[in-house]
Amino acid sequence: MIRIENLSVAFDGPEVVKNVSLEIKDGEILGVVGESGSGKSVTALTLMGLSARTARVTSGRILYDDVTLLEAGKPRDKALYRRYQGARMSMVFQEPMTSLNPTQRVGRQVEETLRLHTKLTAQERREKVLETFRSVGLKDEETVYRSYPHQLSGGMRQRVMIAMAVILHPGLLVADEPTTALDVTVQSQIISLLGEINKKQKNAMLFITHDLNLARRLCSRVAVMKDGCIVEIGETEQIFEHPVQEYTKQLIEAVPSRLKERKSDAEPRENGRGRTAPVVEVRDLSVYYQEGSNSLFGRRKRRCVVKGADFALYAGESLGLVGESGCGKTTLSRAVLGMIRDIDGSVVHNTPRPQMIFQDPYGSLNPTKTVGWLLQEPLRARGAIDASLALSKEEMEEAAYNMLRRVGLEDFYFHRRPSQLSGGQRQRVSIAQALITNPGFIVADEPVSALDVTVQAQIMELLRNFQQEMKLACLFISHDIHVVYKMCDRIMVMKDGRIIESGDTQEIFASPREEYTRQLLNGF
Amino acid sequence: MTAQATGKWNKYVTAGLIMTGTAVLLGLLAFFWTPCSTTAMSLSEKFKAPSLSHLFGTDNFGRDIFSRVMKGMGTTITISVLVVLLSATVGILLGALTGYFGGVVDEIVMRVTDAVNGFPSILLALVAVSVLGSGRQNLILSLGIVFSPSYIRIVRSEYLRLRDADYIKRARLMGVGKCRILFVHILPNILPVFWVSVMIGLNNAILAESGMSYLGIGVQPPNASLGNMLSDAQGYLQTAPWCALAPGLAIVWIVLGFSLFSEGIRRLGE
């Protein structure tokens, strides 16, 4: 049993974790949910004795089966922690690529835990590793044992990480966003695996996530964190069905889910399908990618990434493109925008400059410019190309201020730089920049995936409003089935470069034809 | 630079500013005024030890060393700044083009810079000067050529990194012209990295100029330069050590100042 009592942690400034008390019983999975910066990871890292050197525990203590691991005012007992870490408590991280050493075979890395904490012989250690690999669902464990991390898929790497974490049957397993970097279908498998392990090994598990759906599936109890405090804690169903705190309600409300049936826009949205010409028409499009084209003498290989895509997009319509990473959805969108030239088939759009909104709000705005400059740049560019559309300096400023207000930002943001904005605000500026020239067609590539749930909801709302006001056609790329459900009128499912299924959102969700689509919707 | 916005003022900057500041001020001042003439010889004043009338003493022709060090600093710094200006401009232009567009031109430019980098820079500059002839302009030109590959490489790698940044992709989608993308959208983003390399480059240029003048192919006597003063003083190391000490210390002073300053700026940027 793990007890965290009144834990407060501070870095240089104010406390980032404030008076957090948690109790995890053996055999129980406690979920900690919260948005980025809520202090959930810091709590976990402090519990594991892995917090940064600058972190100070300002109050409280951590108990593991009545042994005090950590207490405020006392330095961390490194020797004590080393006996616990790996053997009695272990952790699974978010990024399975960087948490494994790329230069060592994974078998050896998993075996190291045994070498450090047990007196088993080499043969016994090997047996034990293989056995654990089998138990975490790694097929062909001999091959995995000999593989380097880069030879495994993301899901397999995460299974290896889990094997490493549970091989000594630790009493405490901390999983910090273990599925965030994985595809949906894999995500669902890993969650099931964690549940099984918990049942089998009867250990206490702390599951940290920003995804409420996952917490609901896996955890028996949930703690909601905000600004370093626990705002609400209780049985999972209790919290989801009858949240007490306003913030919890907001969080749950923000998660798109089927139960809510898109209430906000129950009236059928007008899309000119069938009546007017499509905004974008893609006919039998195949997209190729040049491999090794960076060297002077290297042999070039032309690889087909997208095969025979065929679709049309009408004004005011939002078309979802779903599929797992590497299926070619981003490549397809780039080709539709004309950013990739090596194509067969045709792309016709009747809009001069389609725009794009990217996933990463930090990378999509030039950090050296002010918001005002960024918003005026599309107008300047348009004026430079077509002199009849050129605006005066005042007109451009006026337009930029207008757009800023329309995306819900105050006037003073005009002079701010991107580094002074939050992720959600940046995404608002991105949207403003993409739409200020009224492009008629945009591609949104995972526009809300990097945002917190409550912000996610706001940005989706904003996008929908713009779509209706501007009659905007939108190609919406996402791996998040919930977001797609909320945003899109039609869906295309992509697998290995082909569109394997497409149709109205409601139809596809109700009765998917393909087995693969069914798997994708599984987590829904 | 957004130095103040991102970091705290530190002692490196202060020390560096003071050291380079005095050197630059003295050097600039020397173009208009020096305590004594830098070229007037006086046999009776020959080899005077440092005193109040001659702060750093006098040399083998009886010329005031303090004045000559001032003048020398001015010459050295001016030449170095011009060298860095030249090579940095070449670096930005070629680096931006090769990094952003890639292709055959990139391959050719890269192989040429590899070749230039393969030789010690002083040696190459020596060859360049012996082909072009000695003198101030040729010295600046040859050092400028020799120093540009390192700037090309730095700028190129930054452009290579940023050309695929999301905000650059978006700029392309907006229809922003190539030239504007290169120099208005990307260039400001590489300045923090570039600034540090300019500072390091200044130091190298100062050392290179001194070295060339020391070897007699840079600034020609009777004009004073820190390098040719050192070379002149070589013969009297035992009898009049101050002749060598003054220009030597001046070089150390400038180079150390620039190093501290650039280190401070780098820390500010973090």
Structural commentary:
The complex is a heterodimer of chains A (524) and B (270). Chain A is α/β, with parallel strands linked by helices and 524 residues long. In chain A, 36% of the residues lie in helices and 25% in strands. Chain A contains 18 helices and 19 strands. In chain A, the strands form 4 sheets. A 6-stranded mixed beta sheet of chain A has the order 6-7-8-3-9-10, sandwiched between helices. Chain A has a 6-stranded mixed beta sheet with strand order 15-16-17-13-18-19, with helices on both faces. Chain A has a 4-stranded antiparallel beta sheet with strand order 2-1-4-5, with helices on one face. The longest helix of chain A is centred in the middle third of the chain and has 18 residues, at 184-201. Chain A is globular. Chain B has 270 residues and is mainly α. Chain B has helices at 3-6, 11-30, 65-101, 103-118, 121-132, 136-162, 166-174, 178-214, 226-233, 242-269. In chain B, helix 3 packs antiparallel against helix 4 (103-118), helix 6 (136-162) runs antiparallel to helix 8 (178-214) and helix 9 runs antiparallel to helix 10 (242-269). Chain B is elongated. Classes of the chains: A alpha/beta (524), B mainly alpha (270).
